[in-house]
Amino acid sequence: MTADVDALRPAMADGALRLEPLAEAHRAGLAAACAADTTIWDIYPNDWSPAGFDANFEAVLAMPNRIVFAILHDGHVVGMSSYLNPSAVHGSAEIGGTYLAPDARGTGINARFKQLMLARAAACGFHRIEFRVDTRNTRSMAAVEKLGAVREGILRRHMVTWTGHVRDTALYALFIDNIDGPA
To answer: What's the pLDDT score for residue 77?
Structure first.
């Protein structure tokens, strides 16, 4: 059975929480959300602070291997997340490129939108979801572990970030047939 990549694309909602395919209409709201925490970008692969925002916004819209969503709560953009490199043949994808504005952190929004994304992936025939997190980002690693993802290892010296830092990346996986507990 092959997974349906195109079926990952439509908007998703859970009450006041909505994931919408990223579009020009989200630019100003996402720019404001990203500007709310300029220090976090040092541990991200790309600089989404005001200095790098527009170039990165344009780049993600042009990436054919990325399905990116604006995260809205009560109608306001509070962040973004993506399906990365979805493979119909292998039934696997990564959820990443995630950012939440400081006022959305610790509210349960992260778990709720990731559950929406996991449920959508399951409905589309995906069985493996990966998360790749900079090992310096302990908050994100803890959030992924709360979802039930299992740390499979470290990709040492995996990538060079926009700051020139040579990043080690923690690789996590979660199997869709077991989204409520450890994989």
So the answer is: 98
Helix (H) or strand (E) holding 95: strand 92-100
Domains of the chain: 6-178 (3.40.630.30)
In whole angstroms, what is the distance from residue 24 CA to residue 116 CA? 23
How many Å apart are CA 168 and CA 150, to the nearest integer? 17
- The DSSP letter of residue 39 is T
Residue type, 115: Q
What is the biggest distance separating any 2 CA atoms in the chain, rounded to whole angstroms? 44
Task: Profile the chain (183 residues) by mean pLDDT over runs of 10 residues.
Answer: 92 96 98 94 90 95 96 97 96 95 94 94 95 91 92 90 86 76 35
Q: CA–CA distance from 178 to each of 11, 118, 145 (Å)?
A: 24, 10, 13
**DSSP secondary structure letter of residue 102:** G
* pLDDT of the residue at 181: 37
> Are the C-beta atoms of residues 20 and 72 closer than 8 Å to each other?
yes
Given its phi and psi angles, is residue 74 left (phi above 0), alpha (psi -120 to 50 degrees) or beta? Answer: left
Q: Which two tokens stand for residue 6?
A: 């195109």
